[in-house]
Structure formats: structure tokens, C-alpha cells
Amino acid sequence: MEAAGALSDPPATFKNLRDEFDPIHPNSRSGWHRRSLRQSRQRVLDELKDVTDDALMELIDRILKREEEVVAEAIDSLAVVTKVAHNVAERLLTGRRAEQYFLQECLPLVQVPLQNILDCRQLACGFDFGVQGKPEWALEVKGMKQTKGDILFTDREWLEAKLRQDNYWVVVVGNLIAEPTARIIKNPHSQLNVRSTYRQSITVEWHSTVAV
What we know:
Layout: H1 2-7, H2 11-21, H3 39-48, H4 53-64, H5 68-79, H6 88-110, E1 117-119, E2 129-131, E3 134-143, H7 155-164, E4 168-174, E5 181-186, H8 188-191
Parallel strand pairs: 3-4
Antiparallel strand pairs: 1-2, 2-3, 4-5
């Protein structure tokens, strides 16, 4: 294993780390799904959840190459705990279950058959699903374990809600720990009372030296 050789740790160390993160990712491995993530792992998820795959792979590559000066700032940010890490793993699991419920029930919920639902979750476009033939329509799915609780919008999602107005629908799936039920909120930018929060996290910049 490349990581084991580069960092001089046993391969089993990295296999165990992989198994810890398996339950929160959509893959065929179940990993350690019966054990809660450690706080340090949850912090890594919290700090890196908005970093693109390309940027994350670049960071990993530099860590494996032991470019200590290059990665010092990122590593320090992850290593020094300045606040209680949010339970990102639980939020990801809840969101995944809500999305699965929506895909199973999209016809009765939004009157759109599954074959017409467009999966936009990997596009970072401010909503989870679109509708074939209706480019103006955006569907965002939020999940809650209970029947009442907070839902979170990213800044991009909230901007899309503002721009699309009645064409932006939020599907809130609640009571996921028992029998799920859903509520549709059209034009959430106008319908919901919200509060903003700010936090410091890792951001990635790509630099290049050019001449003209």
C-alpha cells in the first residue's frame, strides 16, 4: 500500500482508517457501521467536506511525498481543536437516508417519476436534484431524525433558493428514526426564517506562475 510505505506505518493502520469512514460513503463496504466515529475523525469530515476531490487528492499526494512546509497549514488546522466538531457523520447519514426516501417516493411527493429525476448531487450547483425537461426547477432534500429540528443550507444553496424562488423546492424528510414523513417547502427563501453562522475551515487555492 502506497500510504503505508510513504508514512512508514503498517498497512492495517490505513485499512482500519478506511473501514471507519466506510459507513458514511455510498460504497459496497459496510466498514465499522456499528461504532460511532471518533471525534478526531468527525473533525476531519467537518473541515474537508467542502473540498473538491481534486484538491483532496493533491493534499494527500503532498502528504505522501512528505512536503511538510506545503501541508503544514492544513495539518495544523486539523490537529488543533479550537471548537467542538459537529457530528458530520450523523448529518451525512441522515441526509443520505432522506435522499433515498425521496428517490423512492418522488412520484407522490413532487409528481415526477424517478426516470425524470436528474441527480445533481455531485455538481455542487446548490441543489440535489433537477427534473428532465424543466431546467428551471431545483429540488433540495433535507433530512431530520425527529419530526422537528434544524435544517442547514450552504451559502450556494441559499443563493439558488433566492434566485429560483418558486422553482426551488425543499423536500424535508423527517422522523427518519421511525416512519419517515415528508414536507414540501416551495420558495424557502421567502417562506423560512433563517440565521447565518460563520466558521473558519480549510480552503484550497490553486496557484500558477505565468509570464506574458
